[in-house]
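OP here, attaching both records as promised.
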Amino acid sequence: MPSRPNREQLPMVPRITIAVDIGGKFTDLELRDALTGATYSLKSPTTPDDPARGLTNAIALAGTRFVFGVDDIAQILHGTTIGTNAVLTRDLPPGALITTEGFEDVLRCCLTNWNQSPNGRLCCPYFE
């Protein structure tokens, strides 16, 4: 593992990219320091009642462990296993999908039995 520089030794520019996956049990972070090229991984417990709190806890822990502050974060790339699992298992509260003109066929799109829609998009007959 690369040596960790002292925070005072680093220039004050956003340099940290964080990729995050919030899962049902853990929040996983992959970090890259653009200045040093170092990469780090961190696994932190997910907070199911408030996944955002689990993410902020994980970022704070990573900042302490890998020597960076909030001002050092250039970007956060977010994925969520929680959301994917909810869609796949259809374990979702009632909701709505609102589309703009020209995208009405989105309402017919799904993951299986793909067909060609009138405007060329791949869709399935699930909602027809």
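Record two, same layout:
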Amino acid sequence: MSERATVWTDEADARLRAYLATPGRHIPTGLGTKDAACSVAAINLALTGELSGDVPGCMSKVIGRWIVVTQDKMPDELRNSEGWRALLPLAAGTGREREAARLRVVMNWMWSVLARAQPVADEHGFGGAWRAMCEQRTKDAARAAARATGPAATAARATARATAKAAAKAAARPPRMPPRRPPRGPPRMPPRMPPVPPPGTPRMPQRVPGPRYGRRSTR
């Protein structure tokens, strides 16, 4: 590790703040690139100019590892928020003199956050294992809870895949037109009206019926 990586200077702090404040700068999951580096990689770029995901010597290893894991799990809008960007310069020069105390703080925070997910665990059928993990706070209890969440996670992924597949199939299908009802019998024509004579036309005399000729009387 170079000497530059063990000392966080004011110049490095200014470079990091300028890097994070660049309009359109995106903090991705994973390592990223020099134009869009992850949280720890951005600190290394400001410190040594190298794209690296290793926690630098000037930074607490506990805090650095927490940042690496947390930033990959949090939503994209939270990872790219102003609050998260403001925390990175503060974490960069924390050093490694108080690691035991920092580890206790991080672990207490983790258990408190996991306990908030108890209603979700109850709903999906692994509430008992989850509650035991949060109460015992041991590796064995955490492994048991991880095994209990396996079937629920598998079912959730299968449901998500089936939903996405059905949505894609529905989007690719042409829209169905409503069926056309066949006409009932031949079309009915409107009654034909006699033509109306124009004004001033003389009227024809009415025909007077003549005598009726029937059978001659025998009388």
